[in-house]
Amino acid sequence: MNSRMDIEAQIRQLEEEIKNTPYNKATEHHIGRLKAKLSKLREEAEKQRAKTGKPAFAIKKEGDATVVLVGFPSVGKSTLINALTGAKSDVGIYDFTTLKPVPGMLEYNGAKIQLIDLPGLVEGAARGRGRGREIISAVRNSDLVLMISDPFDLSKVDIIKKELYNGGIRINQKPPEVKIRKRDRGGIKITSTVPLSIDEATIIEVLREYRIHNADVIIREDVTIERLIDAILRNRVYIPGIVAINKADLYTPDNVPEDAILISAEKKINLDRLIEEIYRKLDFIRIYLKPPGGKADMNEPMVIRRGWTVGDVCRKLHRDMYENFRYARVNGTSVKFRGQRVGLDHVLQDEDILTIYA
Predict the structure, then answer these.
(1) Same domain, 215 and 262
(2) Residue range(s) defining the domain that contains residue 213
């Protein structure tokens, strides 16, 4: 316990030092090193919490995608999931009504979308406060995070994003375009295809903080120190997210975030738009299955996520199909010619026709 308290004290000290250090070219190396140390300490603190904390929520993923509802207590998450899916999530006028995850199923455009109402998140969740560790673990395993706030304190939206960020979750971001290949000798060689805002000395300083002294580093974006650290750690998850401001029938503030959707779960206002945005953000495509020697069923497409492979489809259909897979044939935009023979790692495109031989 003392060790954990020591780490937390070091984290607070580093956070304060970074906050009070003006950022400029003269301090860039120093801040880069501080941020790398801070990230390492947070990783160590999380490992210690994992040894002593509660086990993660047992959530069985079902349907074509899983969406988690995250927000502070009493913002209307339970009312919303009930309105969208008919789930039986308890609704109360007091905080922490939902004590465990409550799932429901939303069906839209042929897709079955699992929605999960998580217990209320509180500030400090990333450090394990409340049910923070379990909530963040559930978010990391989801396909989309729906962040819910009420209109009376919109600053909580930023707190939610901060807690998820500190938990290693990157909302509406792509992985950094940085490739690091370690070597046995030769120092650090940096190659960039774009102009960089941070200099090479800072990049080298951050890499050395993680004991990387010999490596080829290829950078294809104007990387920040934080994004460079993400590329080094490679344990971040990148998830699409939506902000919904509930109870908009009671009050509409002036400072609504530009990307937020105003809704009322209780009055069922604007829920159609929210559902459409969930479907769009999940980036579904449709493929058609054609049995060997038979005709494709063009009336019943299979809904999958963009980027899925033939192997992903086999696993979804049946585990035996994946294990006994021989080859597949595809008609559509993902192949160069009709009936092209492909393997498990072939990435499918919208409206492909797939035949699996197993």
Answers:
(1) no
(2) 2-52+176-233
